[in-house]
């Protein structure tokens, strides 16, 4: 089965692209959503995080209380703590992605997508046969983030500036899609890539 990693900055529209692939029978897994799902209950991930950061980051049911963890890893000078969070979470998320990919292959899919915002930083790219970068004009991304997350323009810009640049991601990707908001053009790009994946 062909595994395509999907990367792109906040507001680029990776979700819309993955939805179009799904319409063509190519499933995807969203690693951000997977992390939130895993963090919502007691499991190997939350056990590992509490072993590193203390039981105070969990609620009475063993679920992660994200603001408590954020206070630890996003304070000034906490680079080591943030690195540990990423190392622990990426390990457990990747394990779940591998299980999902085996399931998709067993179901007969010829291709599947792994939507991972930190694809290269996490090392997920090494598990993929190719990488697709979804990008969009800066103004479009800012508007999408503001509308989606109900935040100010300044906050949206800061979020984008904290992430890897389009140039960095594009240089490391074999497939590129510009998602400027033209659905016909977007659908045509997805269809062309899907044909290649299914060959």
**What would the CATH topology of the largest domain be?**
Rossmann fold
End-to-end span in angstroms?
Answer: 11 Å
CATH level-4 homologous superfamily of the largest domain: P-loop containing nucleotide triphosphate hydrolases
Largest pleated sheet: 5 strands, parallel
CATH class of the largest domain: Alpha Beta
Overall outline: globular
Strand content: 5-15%
Tell me the number of structural domains.
Answer: 2
Order of helices and strands: EHEHHHHEHEHHHEH
How much helical structure, as a percent, in the residues? 55-70%
Number of helices, counting only DSSP H or I runs of 4 residues or more: 10
Q: Please state how the strands of the largest beta sheet are arranged side by side.
A: 2-3-1-4-5
Mean pLDDT: 93
Radius of gyration: 18 Å
Number of strands: 5
CATH architecture of the largest domain: 3-Layer(aba) Sandwich
| SS class | alpha/beta
Residue runs with pLDDT of under 50 for 5 or more positions? none
Brief summary:
With 199 residues, this protein is of the alpha/beta class. Helices cover 56% and strands 12% of the residues.
Structural description of this entry:
The protein is α/β, with parallel strands linked by helices and 199 residues long. The protein folds into two domains: 1-27 and 110-199, Rossmann fold (3-Layer(aba) Sandwich), CATH 3.40.50.300; 32-108, no CATH class. It has helices spanning 14-23, 31-39, 44-53, 66-73, 79-106, 119-122, 138-149, 153-161, 166-171, 183-198; strands spanning 2-7, 28-30, 111-115, 130-135, 175-178. It has a five-stranded parallel sheet with strand order 2-3-1-4-5, with helices on both faces. The model has no long low-confidence stretch (mean pLDDT 93).
């Amino acid at each position: 089965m062909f595994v395509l990693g999907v990367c792109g900055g906040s507001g680029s529209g990776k979700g819309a692209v993955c939805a179009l692939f799904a319409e063509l029978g190519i499933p995807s897994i969203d690693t951000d959503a997977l992390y939130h799902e895993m963090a919502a209950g007691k499991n190997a991930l939350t056990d590992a995080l509490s072993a590193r950061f203390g039981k105070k980051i969990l609620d009475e049911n063993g679920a992660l209380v994200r603001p408590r963890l954020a206070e630890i890893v996003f304070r000034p000078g906490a680079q080591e703590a943030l690195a540990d969070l990423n190392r622990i979470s990426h390990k457990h998320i990747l394990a779940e992605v591998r299980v999902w990919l085996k399931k998709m292959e067993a179901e007969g899919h010829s291709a599947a997508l792994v939507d991972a915002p930190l694809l290269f930083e996490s090392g997920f790219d090494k598990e993929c046969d190719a990488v697709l970068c979804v990008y969009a004009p800066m103004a479009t991304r800012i508007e999408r983030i503001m509308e989606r997350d109900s935040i100010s323009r300044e906050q949206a810009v800061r979020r984008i500036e904290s992430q890897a640049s389009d140039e960095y991601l594009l240089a490391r990707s074999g497939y590129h899609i510009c998602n400027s908001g033209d659905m016909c053009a977007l659908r045509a790009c997805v269809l062309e890539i899907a044909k290649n994946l299914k060959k």
